[in-house]
Specification:
heterodimer, A: 325 residues, alpha/beta, Rossmann fold, 2 domains, 7-stranded mixed beta sheet, 5-stranded mixed beta sheet, 12 helices, B: 319 residues, 5-stranded parallel beta sheet, globular, binds thiamine diphosphate, binds magnesium ion
């Protein structure tokens, strides 16, 4: 194992897959010399050249279309949209084209592309640079949605995403880029659709995604000091969703708290809660499911408001205490 | 051209205000007083001032992420801008928007924009409503060279042209969209050439010469106001600072930056006004000092303003 940041883990996955497979290439705004807005692809243009680390004009629809067309031709493009907010501009090519082509063509084509994009708030960049829109993509048949929370998961899941034959939305988080963790020296992949139990516990299950995972783990430590033993489940991929791991935990603990940064209404937490109540795990619930999520507002600029909009460690502790009661 | 003293003085003073405002917020950022990021237009003041000064007060503008200059040129209250920077309740957007979203609705600035190209189609709607209501007001829509490669640019310019809307599109070509130079992002020499494709007039000017910008903008404004339809005005200029706060500037050389600094739009204008005897050196220094005082007062106002009340966090999403 070696220690590296989340951003380095993403870069290492890109680099290794580009070495391994000539059909893998990067395309996006400022991915070359600039290295992407968060420096994730920094240095790759020097190693692989401008053809395979391709800077584009500011044309998100064009980027997405180019990636989709190239994928149809058997290439494996990894497109970057600089901020998740701007996937809105790429939406037609992604949702109407990339996601549906295979099905519409009777299964005779495939679209093996990855769209990497950073979501999330916390940087003071306000309403056009801070959104968490993963639920939009979860809603679309034909897309897969991946949301890693650690360097280990980021690398293993990105390698799997690049090798996957379907369009995969790979949602990174700006506040996680500098976080560190162990990553194996040798090659590995994490199959899409496998959740990870980040902490085992008996008293309640906390299902958390992306930036909420480290916050929930910190909250779990505080809770442990207060005699509450939380189990933390990170789905890692929202689509496909590893229901079994979630259900198993719910059956064990009987209480569920779901934490995500995205706005509560229509968020991925609603889907996860619905899956639980539709399953046998429902019979084991000792209390209603609780969702902790972003407030239903655009992300505000002011530091305090921005912080307050999204669940913080203390909110998670309070919600867990109330749930366990 | 015979220089009108009153206009020149106001333009020079505004350019100082913009420059000092941005130097000040840059410094506040360095001292950790500003959250987030910001996009400074230092070096581009002539393009903002020259074009906005061709408008009447009742005309509208739509601005960009690099919009402090447009906002100040349009007559914004610097106190309220500064308060917005510091995220205060007294700011233009009640601390909700920050640098990238400052709007001054009363002053007819319909907002900066965090989405590159986001304002270009909005200008169509503004122009359309001005035309439908048969006013003689017009709208000026700013965007950068990078934004001209958004699909929405093409849709919007075509619509503005076919409906003969009272719109002046001002493309501030500072030669880079982040790290992407116009040489790499365009196959054509001048962005204004694109106007041809939509059937509107396209003009390219030296964006560091405030009088050249002003004259070209005034013609475009007249055309829009008199029913002659939209214009695409390209101001060729240069940003001195990095793109935002995270830029290592590996895509351009120090020599290039220095060469452009020698064409400082403020210095060029000041020297011209001195040479032609429109103002004295002492007067010019006075305008600069006045601008410094205005900005310093704004910092005091912003610092002493209250933070938003956290209990109001859910307000303002719906009308
Ligand atoms: C739709 C969209 N894509 C990408 C970005 C990130 N971004 C912000 S400014 C910028 C460069 C814009 O270039 P240009 O239009 O030339 O304006 P300039 O920054 O040079 O003033 C980029 C890529 C964004 N804000 N919006
Ligand atoms: Mg530019």
């Amino acid at each position: 194992m070696k220690e590296m940041t989340y951003a380095e883990a993403v870069r290492e996955a890109l680099r290794e897959e580009m070495i391994r497979d000539d059909s893998v290439f990067l395309i996006g705004e400022d991915v070359g010399t600039y290295g992407g807005a968060f420096g994730v692809s920094y240095g790759l243009v020097d190693e692989f050249g401008e053809d395979r680390v391709r800077d584009t004009p500011i044309s998100e629809a064009g980027i997405m279309g180019a990636a989709t067309g190239a994928a149809l031709m058997g290439m494996r493009p990894v497109a970057e949209i600089m901020f998740m907010d701007f996937t809105t501009i790429a939406m037609d090519q992604l949702v109407n084209q990339a996601a549906k082509l295979r099905f519409m063509f009777g299964g005779k084509a495939k679209v093996p592309l990855v769209l990497r994009t950073p979501g999330g708030s916390g940087t003071g960049a306000a309403a056009h640079h801070s959104q968490s829109l993963e639920a939009w993509f979860v809603h679309v048949p034909g897309l897969k949605v991946v949301m890693p929370s650690t360097p280990y998961d980021a690398k293993g899941l990105l390698v799997a995403s690049i090798r996957d034959d379907n369009p995969v939305i790979f949602v990174e988080h700006k506040l996680l880029y500098k976080t560190k963790g162990p990553v194996p020296e040798e090659e590995y992949t994490i199959p899409l659709g496998t959740a990870d139990v980040k902490r085992t516990g008996r008293d309640l299950t906390i299902v958390a995604t992306s930036i909420m995972v480290p916050r929930v783990l910190a909250a779990a430590e505080t809770l442990a000091g207060q005699g509450i033993d939380a189990e933390v489940v990170d789905p890692r991929t929202l689509k496909p969703l590893d229901e079994e791991t979630i259900f198993k935990s719910v059956i064990k603990t009987g209480r569920v708290l779901i934490a995500h940064e995205a706005c509560k209404t229509g968020g991925a937490g609603a889907e996860i809660a619905a899956r639980i109540v539709e399953s046998d795990a429902f019979n084991y619930l000792d209390a209603p499911i609780v969702r902790l999520a972003g407030l239903d507002i655009p992300v505000p600029y002011n530091r305090n408001l921005e912080r307050r909009m999204v669940p913080q460690v203390e909110d998670i502790v309070a919600a867990a205490r109330e749930l366990v009661g | 051209m015979k220089l009108k003293r009153e206009l020149c003085v106001r333009m020079l003073s505004k350019m100082y205000e913009i420059r000092i405002f941005e130097e000040t917020v840059d410094d506040l950022f360095a001292r950790g007083l500003v959250h987030g990021t910001m996009h400074l237009s230092i070096g581009q003041e002539a393009s903002a001032v020259g074009s906005v000064f061709a408008l009447r007060d009742e005309d509208y503008i739509l601005s960009t992420h690099r919009g402090h200059g447009h906002c100040i040129a349009k007559g914004a209250d610097i106190n309220l801008m500064m308060a917005e920077f510091l995220g205060k309740e007294t700011g233009y957007c009640r601390g909700r928007g920050g640098s990238m979203h400052i709007a001054d609705i009363e002053g007819r600035n319909l907002g900066a924009n965090g989405v590159v190209g986001g304002g270009i189609p909005l200008a169509v709607g503004v122009g359309l409503s001005l035309k439908m209501r048969q006013t003689d007001e017009i709208v000026m829509g700013f965007f950068g060279d990078g934004a001209a490669n958004q699909g929405a640019f093409h849709e919007a310019l075509n619509m503005a042209a076919i409906w003969t809307l009272p719109v002046v599109y001002v493309c501030e070509n500072n030669q880079y969209g982040m790290s992407m130079s116009t040489n790499r992002a365009f196959k054509i020499e001048r962005i204004a050439q694109r106007a041809d494709g939509y059937g509107m007039v396209g003009v390219t000017v030296d964006g560091n010469d405030v009088l050249e910008v002003y004259e070209a903008a005034a013609k475009a404004v007249d055309r829009a106001r008199s029913g002659g339809g939209p214009t695409l005005l390209e101001c060729v200029t240069y940003r001195w600072k990095g793109h935002s706060k995270s830029d290592q500037e590996r895509y351009r050389t120090k020599d290039e930056i220095e060469a452009w600094k020698r064409r400082d739009p403020i210095k060029l204008f000041r020297e011209r006004l001195l040479t032609e005897g429109v103002i004295t050196d002492q007067e010019a220094a006075g305008f600069e000092e006045q601008a410094s005082r205005t900005i310093a007062e704004a910092v005091e106002f912003a610092k002493s303003s209250a933070e938003p009340d956290p209990d109001t966090i859910l307000e303002g999403v719906y009308a």
